[in-house]
Write a structure and sequence with these properties.
By secondary structure, this protein is of the alpha/beta class. Helix content is about 30%, strand content about 30%. It has helices at about 10-20, 45-50, 60-65, 80-95, 115-125, 145-150, 170-175, 185-190, 200-210, 295-310, and strands at about 5-10, 25-35, 70-75, 95-100, 130, 155-165, 215-225, 230, 235-240, 245-255, 255-265, 275-280, 285-290, 315-320. The two termini are about 20 Å apart. The structure holds NADP nicotinamide-adenine-dinucleotide phosphate (NAP).
Length: about 325
């Protein structure tokens, strides 16, 4: 029997998740939740621009979640765990497993150990599982290196470089990586947490643990990338010398020794877009993905492929390291 699915958050990612879920025969969308007044009350098929079962988007999360009781919530409303904890807890209480794109949920024990503990306790009590995943965090810079570790001996260090030319990505990503800002606005955004990729430190912890390395500290730096020529964003132009994106580096340490370095550049026109993973070991391995892994569609597929795995998982708060390789 198909797993009942409730969707929560129908922004670009949530709509992508809906379209992918429609292609999975073991999932059945029975409810959809959003707060945007332009979406609430409309047919899901109109909002995702695809034929869907007869589902009208509601804003009463409790009522909509009840329709999917015993099934799963595919959640894509926010990146910060302290802001969405209530949504996750409500779903678990309503009897739904959860797969979320919340970046901080990918490894919540790093920044929010108390929330992780609360969610794990609730999930265990309800005999349900919840997971944070996506393309990054959730795959390229953590689950994939961990999977590659299967063919290595002792790994001493994980290095991952991801370069994304954000001209090919949605405007929201261009803006949250600082494109079009001046230096003062960029620095302020970094301090306030509005500029920057959320989840890189979580990936550094996951990648290290995934290849058997211990971690006792993770840090990160975020710097602007300047345009070498005039650059076109989605509806705006950045002149030569202006900010087109960011370079963010997260490092994980054990006993003062660097065990992982994750280097992420997301910028308009970033040269040589790619994913590059190197595990220093004996034997080690180096893998290059020219052009890099797709972003938004890949995120939607990670969520949809994870849904049956989470539904069948041991109860509790799990991470991508608990998932089997593959789908
Ligand atoms: N892990 C990964 O690899 C990965 C990749 C891509 C994206 N993400 C994350 O996934 C999330 C979704 O991305 P997006 O671009 O689709 O974001 P978005 O455009 O902000 O869409 C979020 C949607 O959720 C709605 N929403 C917010 N709070 C809600 C609530 N309590 N109940 C129901 N609906 C609610 C919003 O409505 P309003 O607009 O009215 O608030 C909006 O329609 C973001 O946090 C993003 O950073 C993760």
């Amino acid at each position: 029997m198909a797993i009942k699915v409730a969707l929560m958050g129908l922004g670009a990612i949530g709509r992508g998740i809906a379209r992918c879920a429609l292609q999975k025969h073991d999932l059945e969308i029975v409810a959809a939740i959003d707060l945007d007044p332009h979406r609430v009350g409309r047919k899901l098929s109109d909002v995702v621009d695809a034929p869907t079962p007869e589902v009208v988007i509601g804003s009463d999360a409790g009522a909509e979640m009840r329709k999917a009781q015993g099934g799963i919530l595919l959640h894509a409303t926010g990146s910060r765990l302290d802001r969405i904890e209530g949504e996750l807890a409500q779903a678990l209480t309503a009897g739904l497993c959860v797969v979320s794109t919340c970046e901080e949920l990918s490894y919540p024990w790093l920044r929010h150990p108390e929330i992780a503990e609360r969610l794990d306790r609730l999930a265990q009590k309800r005999k349900l599982a919840l997971l944070g995943t996506g393309v990054n965090p959730g795959f390229v810079m953590d689950r994939l290196p961990a999977t590659l570790g299967a063919v290595c001996g002792h790994v001493g260090r994980v290095r991952v470089t991801r370069v994304v030319d954000s001209r090919s990505r949605r405007k929201q990503l261009q803006l949250k990586t600082g494109a079009g800002l001046n230096e003062e606005e960029f620095d302020r955004g970094v301090d306030e947490g509005t500029i920057g990729h959320v989840g890189l430190m979580e990936s550094a912890a996951l990648a290290s643990l995934g290849v058997g390395l211990e971690v006792d500290e993770v840090d990160e730096s975020i710097d602007p990338v300047e345009a070498e020529e005039d650059m076109q964003g989605d509806g705006f132009t950045v002149p030569k010398g202006g900010i087109v994106g960011l370079k963010q580096v997260a490092r994980a340490f054990h006993d003062g020794k660097e065990v992982a370095v994750l280097d992420l550049t997301i910028a308009l026109g970033a040269p040589q877009p790619r994913d590059e993973i190197e595990l220093e070991g004996d034997p080690g391995i180096r893998v290059l993905i020219p052009g890099g892994t797709q972003g938004d569609k890949a995120t939607a597929w990670t969520v949809v492929h994870a849904a049956p795995l989470v539904q069948g998982s041991e109860p509790g708060l799990i991470s991508v390291l608990d998932l089997p390789a593959g789908r």
